Amino acid sequence: MLEALVCPVTHTVLHYDAARQELVSRAAGLAFPIHDGIPIMLVGEARQIKADD
């Protein structure tokens, strides 16, 4: 199912970070949280990521 999701900002591929339970959009510099197995794809809920994240 995760393969079907894209970044809501850039419409690019998301990368799954299992350790942090996030879907990461490197293009947008955002990480979208996953709560109880449900990805929260709202920009307001995403955290900004740094280049080394």
UniProtKB/TrEMBL annotation:
<comment type="similarity">
    <text>Belongs to the UPF0434 family.</text>
</comment>
<protein>
    <recommendedName>
        <fullName>UPF0434 protein QWZ10_15315</fullName>
    </recommendedName>
</protein>
<dbReference type="InterPro" id="IPR005651">
    <property type="entry name" value="Trm112-like"/>
</dbReference>
<dbReference type="Pfam" id="PF03966">
    <property type="entry name" value="Trm112p"/>
</dbReference>
